[in-house]
Structure formats: structure tokens, C-alpha cells
Write a structure and sequence with these properties.
The chain has strands at 23-28, 31-39, 42-47, 61-66, 76-84, 91-93. It is mainly beta. It is globular and about 50 Å long. 12% of the residues are buried.
């Protein structure tokens, strides 16, 4: 860290309150965040507003996603990393954005 910058932490919720496969929204440092327990030990947190129309990401579905492949051919993969919008099912990689 650079001089004058301090690291801050805030407890969002106890892990026991978010079992594997569950998601919720929490307020952290004044910002609403969607938190996902994809599997035991794999937690992800993203801003709770979907970029397209502001849908609540905490209600999105986590599954796999389409992998890059040739046109009109589809391969499924990245299980537990695809986050789909609860409104229109648009998706992105929850791990990398």
C-alpha cells in the first residue's frame, strides 16, 4: 500500500448465514453488494446492480456459462462462474467480470 492509505475491513455477515448455493445482498461501506457462496470456500461479491438495467444481482442464477467456440457451436463450462441476470438472463463470469 502507498503512504497514507489504510486497509479497512467490515464484516458483512457470518459465513454460517450463507450456506453453499445461497446468495444475499449486504451493505458494506455504504454500498449494496451481492454475495454468493458458490461452493464451500468459494465466495464472490459484486456490486448488486446489473449493468444493463440495474436488476438485483443477488437474485441472479449462478451456473456455468458458454465457452468461446466457433460460430453456431456451443460448449458449456466454467461451472459455478456464470452469473445470469434475474430479469433477462444475460450473463457474465462472476470471477473475472
Amino acid at each position: 500500500m502507498s503512504a497514507g492509505v489504510t486497509a479497512e475491513r467490515e464484516v458483512a455477515l457470518p459465513l454460517a448465514d450463507l450456506p453453499p448455493g445461497a446468495s444475499t445482498d449486504v451493505k458494506v461501506f455504504g454500498t449494496m453488494v451481492a454475495v454468493f457462496n458458490v461452493a464451500a470456500g468459494r465466495l464472490f461479491a459484486v456490486g448488486n446492480n446489473w449493468p444493463h438495467h440495474g436488476g438485483p444481482l443477488c437474485h441472479g442464477r449462478v451456473s456455468g456459462t458458454h465457452l468461446p467456440f466457433r460460430p453456431h457451436a456451443y460448449r458449456h463450462g466454467r461451472e459455478g462462474r456464470g452469473l445470469a441476470c434475474p430479469w433477462r438472463s444475460w450473463e457474465f463470469d462472476i470471477q473475472s467480470g
